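Recall the central idea of this unit: under ordinary conditions, the amino acid sequence of a chain determines the structure it adopts. In this exercise we apply that idea directly, starting from the sequence alone.
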Amino acid sequence: MDYGHNASSPAIIKTGKMVPMQRILSFLLIFFTLFLVGCQEPVNLPSLTTPLPSLAPEAEPMAEANPEPTLLPTANPTPTLLPEPVQLTATVWEDLPQVPILMYHRFNPNPGVYVNNYTTNLADFDWHLSALYDAGFSLVALGDWLQGNIQLQDGRRPLIITFDDLFYADQISLDEAGNPAPYSGVGRLWAFSQEHPDFNFTVALFYNLGDKGYANHYANGVFTVQEGWRGARAEAIAWGIEHGAIPLNHFYDHPFLNKLAPAEIRWQLEENERALREALSSVGRQDLAKYLPNILALPYVVWPATEEGKQVLFDYLSPEGAPVAAIVEGDSAASAKLFQAPFAEGFNRWHVPRIAASSEAIAVILEMADQIPAASHCDLGEFLANPHVLPNTISAAITARVTSGTCPYGYYVVDQWAFYVHEDGIIQYTP
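Accordingly, the structure predicted from this sequence is:
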């Protein structure tokens, strides 16, 4: 037999014999496997009677009946709020804002009757409103003004209206449909604001609940007190707070503060607040009390006689814990002393001036209307808010508009922020 080389049957020569390649490969495979096993650590295989370890987290024992599903915690249990784009427009006052504050008391619905500093004919009141509106005036809330939140429509001048010695039905009444009655001062103001929306609707009502009844029935120009007057008064108070006729503290019995001891002054304030909240509770609207600013008006424009008595006013906190924002005075003369914005130098919130609202005083205000700044606006562009635009972002946008000449120097009010821009830079005033 010829044992020469054959390409299809490779072989190895050993001791003179030829070994088939298939046997050689089998031998090498066994040897290599034994070599690998010998080089590894010994492995302990689990017993068939021992449970295999689970890869899932340990679960609580399941109840036998009606098991509740287990909610696994997530990495982000609260969804992330994405910033929303908002368009910001600033109210701009090129000069320091200042405002006349009118002081009314009682109203008489009968035309042609005699009036004085404490009673205004509703026909005259209508004329006051029309003349002031035509001169460019629109209403601002007293509480907003004190916070520097002074915003109006383009070209409008600020005006604040207050009533004293509430609550009388000729000052605020609701009709059978629950709307402000046209035979009351608030009703006339409401009707005018509905006809002229850019006049706005807001009025400060300084109340004394300790010395007044409420005539809840009106017929042929005559008010009378009838059963249910407390409920009618409470409903009118609640309507006012909801719509912008805001009750503010004028002391319970309208006393001369210079005749009271400090403890008596404090009682007058606290009892007035208690009575108002009791009225709101009687109609299920005690929730409205939290919206009331803490602003005081001096009865008869008389201060306490002692420093201790004055300190009672400065330190007084409302039942909701709000500090006194301002103390309001008054002027019986037909003068027109204006009240400056709170970011004015020398601003004094303890002596807020008012003007007795006679027809003569209205005429004086109309003559000086051009001296009272009017509002303009500056479009600041679109911003991302989460939840608010930061003041430094607003400041930068204002500076850019002024530098480019798009908007003027002056006082800028954007939401709750107020800034003053001048040639040397920008100042943030509030909050």
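Residues 1-74 have pLDDT under 50 and may be disordered.
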